[in-house]
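In response to reviewer comment 3 from the previous cycle, which asked for concrete evidence that the modeling workflow produces usable outputs, we include below a single protein chain processed end to end. The sequence was submitted unchanged, and the resulting structure tokens are shown without manual editing.
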Amino acid sequence: MLSEDTYSEQSVSAPTPNNHKFPGIDLGSIHVDTPVMLSPMAGVTNWPFRVLCEEFGPNGLYVAEMITARALVAKNPKALRLCRFAPSEHPRSLQLYGVNPEITRLAAAMVVDGDMADHVDLNFGCPAPKVTRHGGGSALPWKLDVFAELIRRVVSVCEPAGIPVTAKIRVGIDHEHETFLEAGRIAQEEGCAAVTLHARTTAEYYGGHSDWNRIGQLAQELSIPVFGNGDIWTAEDALEMMNHTGCAGVAIGRGCQGRPWLFADIANAFAGSSVRVNPTLGQIGGIISKHARLLTDFYDGDEQMAVHDLRKHVAWYLKGFPVGGEVRRQFMECESVADVDAKVAEFDQNTPFPMAIADKPRGRVRYARKVHLPYGWLDSRNLPTEEREKLFGDDPMDASY
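The workflow returned the following structure tokens.
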């Protein structure tokens, strides 16, 4: 892997000096030197990508992609693969998703008993219909009793083992059904060490601009650290969010897709430095090749699976570069690491980073057409016994991936 020093000749100064420095955060027994978190993203934040991010920005918090509690309890092979960490990763951060408090507790117990992670994050922020239609993700905080019980049960297992528990939430289901302040207070009362707020509602999905004022509201409301999430595309965005909201740290999702060096930029910014990393096309080619090899290890030597997984990352890595549609198409046809290396070798090594897209949104930007919820979900803030039996009786959480 090319070290940050390799990029020094390509580094540039931020438009304005940064005189602010931000301290680290304590999450129980874990100290995070740089208050930045890699947000879990399905199909993205497996350990190969986390390692790349961590190499650029050590001493942050890099969270594994969401693990379905039911699948983990069932020892689903894909779930177990997603729980793997590279030897260099510390702390090891794992995110669990569940609706049934007892199933989620059992999953947390597996994590503790198997020494699978040093930190557990709970997902109450996912807006995907396949999650919310079962009452999970960003739908669950609407049911105050189940939300509190799930956190309580997980903390009861993790806390004695010295494993801090955090929670990821959204503003609410929509602006008529906001939950973030209540959810933050409950998370704090039930023993969470921190809360991350994605400042959009479920209905807003990833469209428009997140409302950072809500992050400021939650930060003022809670005594535990609040991480702000939403629309951080550059280190300057991270600084602006910290200064605007008073949050304790930032969580980075789509902004780092194809840009693992964003964590170096943020670490520099939070340390008061204006140095930024802007790799050439040749240097990005080196990252792509390394990513392919790490993914091969992740897939136990299966190069075809590795390079197929790499395809979406290549599209993000090459965003804005004048490489042409044919080159992009050829990457989509790669079937081995050798194929990837051959395409990388054809890059113009000195093509500069396209600064015109440096602060532009990445990944999917869209609104959800409809929020999918269990029937009658919004009728009350609690889940009656008979409704629990309907939701949990047949264990609606699929154990497959």
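The longest strand covers residues 165-172. We consider this sufficient to address the reviewer's concern, and the full set will be provided in the supplementary archive.
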